[in-house]
Design a protein that fits this description.
7-stranded mixed β-sheet; 526 residues; Alpha-Beta Plaits; Rossmann fold; alpha+beta; 27% strand; binds guanosine-5',3'-tetraphosphate; 8-stranded antiparallel β-sheet; 30 strands; globular
């Protein structure tokens, strides 16, 4: 197969959702359709199964929270699908944000009872930064949820994106009869606890067909006709181009646990979702069909075995063909790197592979050379952009409780930060070290791993900080002056970039007003 054909057949995406909306359940159903797993139903046992296969760290086993972002590859109707899983727990949101830099599109799951929740809003903001195409799946239609029109309005309002329903529910909760596929004009009737993968849909080109009344009852039939008229009247025709530019989100309704409405969505997904796209670097745009290989690391995961410091770096291939054992230019590093142990993730199994193509994610065994954001190329010196750090929300000062283990602590902190577990800021004054995270749980993870893997003991002391803002100014003199006058609040991030540590929102606003020439950024890339 030619490189272009390989690229065309790939779809790399992630499912994002507020916890409990049904991401795990939907993932399982997609794997079922892809033939990657065999048993339907029993979500719980499959969930545990998925967890044990992707949980590589001791801590995950203890907590039963999947910290890992694993990759599930499978084939469906001749399309190679790479599904990147994201941690369900919101304390690991930063991990999810980074995963979103490695996908070409996302499916967003929304619970029809709860509507748009806070985590969904945050994730959508990240998608918007990169104009990532979004398909929306409104889930749990077997429950009495909110009115579908209200849900669509809420998605538009809260997520700030136009929507276009491509399927429409007939009833809801106990009265849920099925979904009508507006795109293909097919009716899909609901059988509760549907455990098989059925494709026996009844096609209705003409909704006036009296058979419809017989099938779903006259009341539902009339309602559906009215709804379809209204939707076709209110919403403009679905334009794939608008979706691909991230301007409009097609919406599907269904019930993941009942395996309902899922294959409507999957079939449309493989038709409209983008194959691997071009990506920006600091020097030029890289097209996927360029013959020379390039890619970037978006995640690093510590190996489960504490006796070995091996880590797995997840590399997204952006162009050309990646080959095992070939030396590649590690743009940030001093020497070329060659990987003999290259893993690809097919369904829930890992397998050693010899080559991979744009859109694919491979796992590289690494002994500490790679860090998040690193670019590998076949020679060219360029760095993929768009893998920023976001300002953390919780800050704690690192206090070393065992002075004999200072070196171990430094090393451990450095490595954990390279893995992206949290962000480290070092104050210019007094060299105090502050760890910033988006959730409480990471502090426990860090404390546990420092002890377990590096034999270092730390405590975290609360700090009254609101945000870390990366600062810049066109005039170097003014920046130096600002840094001098505010030096108690100036720190450096892992890349030695200047950061202003703001104590409160109002105070930050005041400083911003007083220093209009200084730019304050909430992500590390600007
Ligand atoms: P998450 O990964 O987004 O956190 O959500 P997950 O799939 O784990 O689903 C959260 C809960 O919602 C699960 O119930 C799951 O069974 C349920 N669920 C998923 N899809 C549907 C649906 O279409 N309809 C209904 N009614 N429920 C759905 P749980 O009680 O937490 O676990 P379990 O005991 O059912 O496995």
């Amino acid at each position: 197969m030619s490189l272009t054909e390989e690229i065309k057949k790939r779809r790399t995406f992630a499912i994002i959702a507020h916890p409990d909306a049904g991401k795990t359940t939907l993932t399982e159903k997609l794997l079922l359709f892809g033939g990657a797993i065999q048993t339907a139903g029993a979500v719980k046992s499959n969930k545990i199964d998925t967890a044990t296969k992707s949980d590589w760290m001791e801590i995950e086993k203890q907590r039963g929270i999947s910290v890992a972002t694993s990759v599930m590859g499978f084939e469906y109707k001749d399309v190679k699908i790479n599904l990147l899983d994201t941690p369900g727990h919101q304390d690991f949101a930063e991990d999810t944000y980074r995963t979103l830099t490695a996908v070409d599109s996302v499916i967003m799951v929304i619970d029809c009872v709860k509507g748009v929740e806070i985590q969904t809003e945050k994730l959508m903001e990240v998608c918007r930064m990169r104009n990532t195409p979004v398909i929306c799946f409104i889930n749990k239609l077997d429950r009495e949820g909110r009115d579908p029109y209200d849900l669509l309005d809420e998605v538009e309002e809260k997520l700030n994106i136009k929507v276009r329903p491509l399927s429409w529910p007939i009833g809801m909760g106990k009265g849920f009869k099925g979904v009508y596929n507006l795109y293909e004009k097919k009716l899909n009737l609901f059988t509760p606890s549907q455990r098989k993968l059925s494709d026996d849909r009844q096609v209705f080109e003409n909704l006036d067909d009296p058979q419809l009344d017989a099938l779903i009852g006259p009341g539902n039939a009339t309602q559906l006709r009215e709804d379809v008229d209204l939707i076709e009247g209110v919403y403009p025709d679905f334009d794939v181009k608008d979706y691909l530019e991230g301007k409009i989100a097609p919406v599907f309704f269904g019930s993941a646990v009942n395996n309902f409405g899922v294959n409507e969505m999957l079939d449309t997904f493989i038709k409209i979702a983008p194959s691997p796209k071009s990506r920006e670097t600091d020097v030029r745009e890289v097209k996927p069909d360029e013959p020379k290989f390039s890619g970037f690391v978006f995640k690093i995961h510590a190996n489960m075995d504490p006796n070995h410091r091996n880590r797995i770096a997840f590399l997204r291939i952006c162009s050309g063909k990646f080959e095992r054992n070939k030396p590649y230019n590690h743009v940030r590093g001093p020497k070329p790197l060659r990987f003999s142990n290259v893993t690809q993730f097919m369904a829930q199994d890992k397998e050693i592979i010899d080559e991979a193509f744009p859109g694919d994610i491979v796992g590289l065994y690494d002994t500490g050379n790679l860090k998040i954001g690193d670019t590998l190329t076949e020679g060219e010196n360029m760095v993929f952009t768009g893998i920023p750090s976001f300002s953390p929300e919780i800050f704690r000062e690192v206090v070393n409780k065992d002075a004999m283990k200072t070196k171990q602590l430094e090393k451990g902190l450095k490595q954990l930060m390279e893995e992206g577990v949290a962000q480290l800021f070092t104050f210019e004054m007094g060299q105090r070290k502050v760890v910033g995270t988006v959730g409480q749980l990471q502090f426990e993870v860090i404390q546990f791993r420092l002890k377990n893997e590096y034999n270092a003991t730390v405590e975290f002391h609360p700090m009254n900080l609101y945000k870390a803002c990366w600062i810049s100014c066109k005039d170097k003199k003014q920046l130096d002056e600002f840094v001098r006058s505010k030096n108690r609040y100036i720190a450096r991030d892992k890349d030695d970039k200047l950061v202003f540590m703001a104590e409160s929102k109002s105070w930050l606003q005041m400083v911003q007003d007083n220093y209009p020439e200084i730019e304050f950024h909430f992500t590390s890339e600007f």
